[in-house]
Write a structure and sequence with these properties.
By secondary structure, this protein is mainly beta. Helices cover 8% and strands 35% of the residues. It starts with 20 loop residues before the first strand and ends with a strand.
Amino acid sequence: MSDPGVVPALGEVPLFRPGDKIQVSDRSPIGHYRVPTYLRGKQGSIEKVIEPALVDNEEEGYGRNAGSKRHYYRISFAMMELWQDYAGSPHDGLRIEMFESWLERI
């Protein structure tokens, strides 16, 4: 049993859980980033928390991370959310792993 007075450090506890609805942040950073542009601003849902927490590779690429860790998540998107003229089945989807800092709760 955990102590209710103990506050976990950033990255120790995932911010999202399977089933949570998210939106991918719609920003255009210059340089080292790992989120496809076609997913920015799109809505999906968390399928899985990837364990263990890992180093933020975007910040690490610039030497700014200092080894802090956060979570990656497997996100599912409906193809109809991603491609306006998608003609396939409404059950078709895309799955991708994304770092926590790109996700917004909706």
